[in-house]
Amino acid sequence: MGDMANNSLAYSGVKNSLKEANHDGDFGITLAELRALMELRSTDALRKIQESYGDVYGICSRLKTSPNEGLSGNPADIERREAVFGKNFIPPKKPKTFLQLVWEALQDVTLIILEIAAIVSLGLSFYQPPEGDNALCGEVSVGEEEGEGETGWIEGAAILLSVVCVVLVTAFNDWSKEKQFRGLQSRIEQEQKFTVIRGGQVIQIPVADITVGDIAQVKYGDLLPADGILIQGNDLKIDESSLTGESDHVKKSLDKDPLLLSGTHVMEGSGRMVVTAVGVNSQTGIIFTLLGAGGEEEEKKDEKKKEKKNKKQDGALRIWRVLFASLMLAKAEMGAAMEMQPLKKKQISAVQIGKAGLLMSAITVIILVLYFVIDTFWVQKRPWLAECTPIYIQYFVKFFIIGVTVLVVAVPEGLPLAVTISLAYSVKKMMKDNNLVRHLDACETMGNATAICSDKTGTLTMNRMTVVQAYINEKHYKKIPEPEAIPPNILSYLVTGISVNCAYTSKILPPEKEGGLPRHVGNKTECALLGLLLDLKRDYQDVRNEIPEEALYKVYTFNSVRKSMSTVLKNSDGSYRIFSKGASEIILKKCFKILSANGEAKVFRPRDRDDIVKTVIEPMASEGLRTICLAFRDFPAGEPEPEWDNENDIVTGLTCIAVVGIEDPVRPEVPEAIKKCQRAGITVRMVTGDNINTARAIATKCGILHPGEDFLCLEGKDFNRRIRNEKGEIEQERIDKIWPKLRVLARSSPTDKHTLVKGIIDSTVSEQRQVVAVTGDGTNDGPALKKADVGFAMGIAGTDVAKEASDIILTDDNFTSIVKAVMWGRNVYDSISKFLQFQLTVNVVAVIVAFTGACITQDSPLKAVQMLWVNLIMDTLASLALATEPPTESLLLRKPYGRNKPLISRTMMKNILGHAFYQLVVVFTLLFAGEKFFDIDSGRNAPLHAPPSEHYTIVFNTFVLMQLFNEINARKIHGERNVFEGIFNNAIFCTIVLGTFVVQIIIVQFGGKPFSCSELSIEQWLWSIFLGMGTLLWGQLISTIPTSRLKFLKEAGHGTQKEEIPEEELAEDVEEIDHAERELRRGQILWFRGLNRIQTQIRVVNAFRSSLYEGLEKPESRSSIHNFMTHPEFRIEDSEPHIPLIDDTDAEDDAPTKRNSSPPPSPNKNNNAVDSGIHLTIEMNKSATSSSPGSPLHSLETSL
User: Fold this and answer.
1) Which of 77, 108, 433, 455 is catalytic?
2) Residues of the chain with pLDDT > 70: what percent?
3) pLDDT for 525-541, tens place per residue?
4) Is the peptide bond before 1010 cis (omega within 30 degrees of 0)?
5) Quick count: other Cβ atoms within 10 Å of Cβ 837?
6) Is 601 exposed, middle or buried (0-12, 13-18, 19+ CB in 10 A)?
7) Cα distances (Å, whole numbers) of residue 1156 to 848, 976, 1099, 1151
8) Radius of gyration of the chain from its Cα atoms, rounded to whole angstroms
9) Where do the CATH 3.40.1110.10 domains begin and end in the chain?
């Protein structure tokens, strides 16, 4: 280490000459050489560096960069480097063009059937039977006016036109969805910055701007954005499992293994590296390009296979079902059931409706055909004449079209659209509320949250640490003392100790705005200590300039096990001095001396320590302060050099300099937010690393604890003692005794946090399974964030690893944003229920009307084109109108629904059936008695090409207006009376309702033949509107009937009940695997996990783009609209075997797997690698579960 410092000094002389050299001449090392070097591992790489380049400084000089100053930052130089070595960017796959999306939308089976029917109808309409034979062919066109016969083509053309509309709307939806997704992705990419040194300045630049030759600073929690070689490192440990499958952390040092690879995580320590490969040339990039090239060929193969398979299936079905029926059944099941799966796996009754509609349409067609055949050939005894064939076929085509329209209306295709729109809209709006959603389903899970385990620092508090009290030279100062009050030698220890023993990345910068607070960069606690020096009118930067980071002899960086940080300095006389800082109770136990009032060190006995704890530390903690102890130790020059790796012998026998109390004030808006959570039935628990007194004080200030309540506040070790049995194993029953009352867990390790979250989720004490949200910012919070139903990472204070493991990133680190997420989550749920209530009413009515009408009058009262218009209103437009209702505070006044709450409650069922009854009565009255009431000609039993009748137009108009007014009723699903409340807050809703009304007027008044409408008088319009508004009055009547009286009403759309789960799945949890076997599996799993992660990432974008129904071979296949979500099913149990993630000393066996990171225990007990692998790949294909990827490079998938 010492000679390293000299090396860097010797090097700085070359600095200036380098800058000139930078502009001309090539680099002394080629891209190919660098690539070859980065593919070597540990000792091979070291040998290669020594043989070819001397050392890492040799590589720096060939890359024309300075290890201390970095690149000059000259734009021309950066450009040249990017030209030679490439950019730090992996090009994504090209998005689908609008035309491709149109083509995909055209694959919809219903549309294909309609197109065929329309074309046949078009072709036949041009056929005119020979003059004079008309009478022979039955009543084809009785009462046809001259020239009216020529307009037979209009219906076919109108159907085709409406198909075009539907296709364009669908394609546009897909296109905008993909655009949104890419926007989100690029936003995540832009937010990722990395620290580099340019022109001697430490700056943060976007990951994409990093180039070969940059000197990058790496620290705990980083995800490396490029390959590089270590120049200087302090205790650096890397998790390379994502690339190599090696689960143990790899120690990086100059003399053993200096290569750092992109996509790996820094788990401990810090250091600097020179970047040697970026983008497609980095290790991650190489794998991406391999997969990218292979991906397209694979896709083509897959598509061919899929086509063949589908053809076979279709053939089999065709034999025993009406052609379009079979195809539509598949469509209905997949469309409706699959799309809803992210919404709590609730198989909505949409499938049943689809099946019922299918049955109805088939029966309708059969009845129509039979009736016509019997009536024409049996009753009227007409012969079948050859020249009449086209006319008969025209009848059959008309019947077929009626059948298809019944089906179109019956299948709730708008459901997937409503879910998509609702989630996409929420996600977009949540961005404004500082929630960056990475997994779409998290948004809706959040609505059911019953518990939130929150960090204290930064989430509940402002994370603006300041030292407010201190115990120095045996005095307890309640305010920061004047520098004159402190003996000079104590002050110098304090200044040097704080300046050197805080990470050099922590600094205090001048405020951005005039009059603002100074900016804290880096670790907030360290910034508070540096702020103390500024308050004492001393400058830490002078000390750092004198002792640069390279001159530090050894650094023991802070981690969750040590809970302290120490730095060793080597003095010129050969002696060593170590400075240490950390949690006061931990450091004080290691202190044997203390600096007294006159600045001399005096003996510090356990009795003295207890006094300090009682008189200084506990009073500070009870006021909510975090206490930090500062200490030092000298190693004299004459003694043999200590064994630096043996940390326990080094950091002991210390001399205490001072104890400081650091305050982190509670955010002013937090107590109110916590009150809202508690009112909404959500328990807030605080999990913190601080001591119990501080934690209790802050929890009381926040309102998590209320005076006089018997809630538990436990320390980590106490918690562990209570939940473990004699053998030290965690028992669920013991956790169940604790968690319902636990409100504060202090001095907790990340393992404790994970144990608590898992314990609450797995608990069966309450009748509803708990849904837990967790906040985290550190790398060590990864397992808990993964395990939780919804993981929130901090956008400002969070490390890359935490963000990677999370579902939602809080861009302002504020607890109130979590409350907003709850509101949005509940709103998504309600929006979809509203849409269903509206959609199902229309479905029931339209199907029954079309079916009965067709069977009684041989003609559907609602024509094909009209049905398509109704379908458009109730699908696309209604899903837009109802799915974009903004959330209101009243959502937080009810308890969470719970996981198995049906999507269609009994109140909704009452509304659906009640309104359907009213609408059917109105429609049938108009249909069978309307002509007498309005004194017009009856439209029933009209011949084939008869002009549109006023009678049927009134039926159609009233039907649509009833739907419009019912859309306003559908805004409320909990039986509220005031359905207009807040209606003007939703501009989209108002626009759509008014727009639909205007279009309806145009269709009726000017639609004419294509829409089978004839103009209506003002009086007829007023009657239609009056009957439509009747639904609002009828709605008031329905809400008067108490739901509790209607026992016969069923709920629909439950989640999976316990007894429905097959026994094998339950057995999986029970199955235990012994330790050796677990070890054996771990390597294989990690290897497959690494590969699969990358494959997943590449699939993510494809999955998101792929059209809604593509490739779903059977309804159970685990798929979902957003194919890139973590499937809720996977989230519930931790599948065996456990793979330790964070190798803390004690966490080895407790840190269970990341969510679904391992395959299910395979039937093959030998656990061949191949076996596990196959399992994984199947899982992967079944559901491309993944997080929305950040830049492909910078977020190598950590969630399988």
Assistant:
1) 455
2) 74
3) 899 999 999 888 888 88
4) no
5) 25
6) middle
7) 46, 42, 18, 14
8) 36
9) 466-663
Q: Which residues contact 50 (CB under 8 A, 6 or more apart)?
A: none
pLDDT in tens, 1022-1077: 999 999 999 999 999 998 888 877 777 766 555 444 334 344 334 433 333 344 44
3.40.1110.10, 3.90.550.10, 3.30.70.20, 3.40.50.150: CATH of 466-663: 3.40.1110.10
Q: Where in the chain is the domain with CATH 3.40.50.1000?
A: 435-460+668-813
Is-contact 70 199, C-beta < 8 A?
A: yes
Report which DSSP code applies to 469.
E
Per-chain mean pLDDT for the chain: 75
Placement of tokens 């790949």 in the chain: 1177
Show Cβ contacts of residue 317 under 8 Å, excluding neighbours closer than 6 positions: 326, 327, 330
Give which of 219, 255, 213 is closest to 238, Cα–Cα. Answer: 219
Output DSSP code: residue 1123.
S
Distances (CA, A) of 813 to 462, 691, 1190: 9, 22, 19
Q: Which long-range contacts (CB under 8 A, 24 or more apart) does 295-303 make?
A: 295/93, 295/1098, 299/1102
Sign of CA dihedral 880, 881, 886, 887: negative
Taking Cα atoms as reference points, which of 40, 87, 408 lies closest to residue 225?
87
Residue 1182 confidence (pLDDT) above 70: no
Domain(s) labelled CATH 1.20.1110.10 in the chain stretch across: 830-1052
Nearest residue to 591 (alpha-carbon basis) of 657, 509, 501: 657
Let me know: does 424 contact 180? Beta carbons within 8 Å.
Answer: yes
Return the amino acid letter for 24: D
Percent of the chain residues topping a pLDDT of 90: 15
Q: Name the nearest CA neighbour of 424 among 996, 94, 824, 953.
A: 824
Angle, helices 153-191 vs 864-872, to 10°: value is 20
The residues with which 237 forms a beta bridge, in sequence order, are 251, 268
Residue 914: per-residue pLDDT: 92
Both structure tokens of 1032: 């609002």
Alpha carbon distances (Å) from 876 to 165, 755, 896, 930, 1007: 11, 45, 29, 31, 21
pLDDT band at residue 1099 under the 50/70/90 scheme: low
Per-residue pLDDT tens digits for 1111-1130 = 333 333 333 333 333 333 33
CA distances in angstroms from 553 to 57, 215, 236, 546, 578, listed in the order given: 19, 21, 14, 14, 10
Superfamily, domain 435-460+668-813? HAD superfamily/HAD-like (3.40.50.1000)
Strands 591-595, 654-663: pairing is parallel
| C-beta of residue 485 within 8 angstroms of C-beta of residue 474 | no
pLDDT for the residue 111: 72
CATH architecture classification, 31-89+208-290:
Distorted Sandwich (2.70)
261-306 pLDDT tens trace: 888 888 888 888 999 888 888 887 877 777 664 444 444 444 444 4
Q: Do 1142 and 777 contact (CB within 8 A), yes or no?
A: no
Contact 567, 579 (CB under 8 A): yes
As a whole number of angstroms, the distance between CA 214 and CA 202 comes to 11
Q: What are the residues facing 634 on neighbouring strands?
A: 577
pTM check: above 0.85: no
Is residue 318 over pLDDT 80? no
pLDDT digits (tens, 9 = 90+) for 149-169: 455 676 677 777 777 877 887
Fold classification of 830-1052 (topology level): Calcium-transporting ATPase, transmembrane domain (1.20.1110)
Lowest-pLDDT range, 555-564, 747-756, 984-993?
555-564
Residue 455 a catalytic site member: yes
**pLDDT given at position 990:** 92
